[in-house]
Amino acid sequence: MLGFDVSERTVLRWMRKAPRNPEPAKLWKAFLNNHREAIAAMDFFTVPTLTFGVLYCFFGVSHDRRRILHCNATRHPTSAWITQQLREAFPDDSASRYLIFDRAANFNEEVVSTIKSFGIEPRRTSFRSPGQNGVAERFVGSCRRTCSITSSSSTNGISSVSSPSCTSTLLMRSRLGRALTNAWKSCFSATPMRGSSPRAFC
What we know:
Elements: H1 8-17, H2 23-34, E1 39-48, E2 54-62, E3 68-74, H3 79-89, E4 98-101, H4 109-117, E5 121-124, H5 134-148, E6 154-155, E7 158-159, H6 167-186
Parallel strand pairs: 1-4, 4-5
Antiparallel strand pairs: 1-2, 2-3, 6-7
Helix pairs in contact: 3-4, 5-6
């Protein structure tokens, strides 16, 4: 507009040094701190299979005690499947006041409408801002690290973990392992599976 040609590298260098408004981050942090007992979060993480497929693992976690509300795995995370998982995660009158989730395509208007029908206020995170859903992201990291640790001895099908880990993570690993095993077996069955048993983790 002013007749000057500026390269993208110059603009990027300036944007990194440009002052940012800290107010939005403070407001989001205050929201998480003030409503911790009324907030839940949901997200997906992927697990590759031996048949070069991908399983999508859904989970819901409460912010107050970092408690896993519900989890399940499927090869086809459709909006109808997610809606069913939400019904199982928030049965009766146990719904939280707020539900945090990202802007993934499978969290579409149908899912948002279901959330609102439970009396829950949906809160989407900003674009490419996984830190705003930190509780869910930390759980995914803990699950990946725990499941990647193996040892020679195992008990009840669960390999012993040499590093310290909380009991809830080990329990989650056991439940997730059973769901992934069932989903893996279905890859070789004649009928494709749209999702594991609704009560696989209950």
